[in-house]
Amino acid sequence: MSRSFAWLAFTFAIACGRAPESAGPLVLVDDAGDTTRLARPAARVASLAPSTTELLFAIGAGPLVVGRTKWCDWPAEAASVADLGDGINPNIEAILGVRPDLAVLYLSPGNASAASRLRGAGVPTVQLRGDSFDDLARNAELLGRAVGRSDSARSVVAALQSGLAALDRRGDSSGPRVLVLAWDNPPMTIGRGSYLDELVSRAGGRNIFADVDAPSAPISLEAIAARHPDAILTSSVNPGFVSRPEWQAVAAVRRRRLVVLEGSEFSRPSPRAPAAIRRLAAAFDSLR
Question: What DSSP state is assigned to residue 38?
Answer without folding.
Answer: E
